[in-house]
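REQUEST ID: PR-0412
SUBMITTED BY: lab tech R.K.
PRIORITY: routine
TASK: structure prediction, single protein chain
INPUT:
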Amino acid sequence: MPLRLPDKLPAIKRLEDENIFVIDETRGHTQDIRPLRMVILNLMPLKVTTETDLIRLLSNTPLQIDVTFMKLKSHTPKNTPIEHMKQFYIDFDILRNKKFDGMIVTGAPVEDYSFEDVTYWEEISEIFTWARTHVTSTMYICWAAQAALYAFHGIKKISLPKKVFGIFPQYISPEYENCPLFRGFDSEFNMPHSRHSGTLSKDIEACPAISILAQSPKTGPSIMMERDGREIYITGHMEYNPDTLDTEYKRDLGKRDDVDKPINYYIDDDPAKGPRVTWRAHANLLYHNWINYYIYQKTPYNIDEIS
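STATUS: complete
OUTPUT:
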């Protein structure tokens, strides 16, 4: 089954060119099944790029997924046309009385701010709380993972002496090797990271509600979970397209004094040779397992029963 997306969403054409099967709302309404309802709170500056990256991964499932894009009233994006936001995004205030099978909250370029100094902190904190009773399983990515851990448990983020930038091997904690989220995984898998802040393992371990499923000596905890998968926290970017780190590196080169080549990314460590893609298979498997084991098999058929 395909993803069901808003009519005329720009990502549709690009994904069709990649032979990824998606349908628009008009066609989807003719299929008489109960699709999973997924809401995405996209906080990244380049909305269309992030939409495409996430939809590409969500499409790797036999289930029909009805995707809704949420936006904040307290924040106006500067890098996405207002027409795009009006056409495809819906304010949280309008969605607050609805329930969803799954939710994704993306990262955001606000790492240099304390959480309370982020202009939309009050609204996003309310959304985090709302998701706990209105969504079967929520995936928090990068900054959103740090923010949710702080909102729920007071776990602070730390500023890193050097940006974590590149592809880093992650290791599944032995006690979670049979976790459904890792069905089909190797014991070691790669994950893209691009961040200036992090969360200490000891702070996570001090919170008994949270399980560290995978981590790395160089990146710290990378995948965490609580409430039997109602919340999943990912500190990296499994959704990244093959050229995302290359684009970021070339964008910042010469503009900042702390820009190094992404680690373990380029063939022979040579930007001219392009990236060596080593994470996409596990990325697809991660999202497939999340949708299957933590959403589809746990969400009630009557979506209003989510609590």
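NOTES: The two ends are 27 Å apart (CA to CA).
REVIEWED BY: pending
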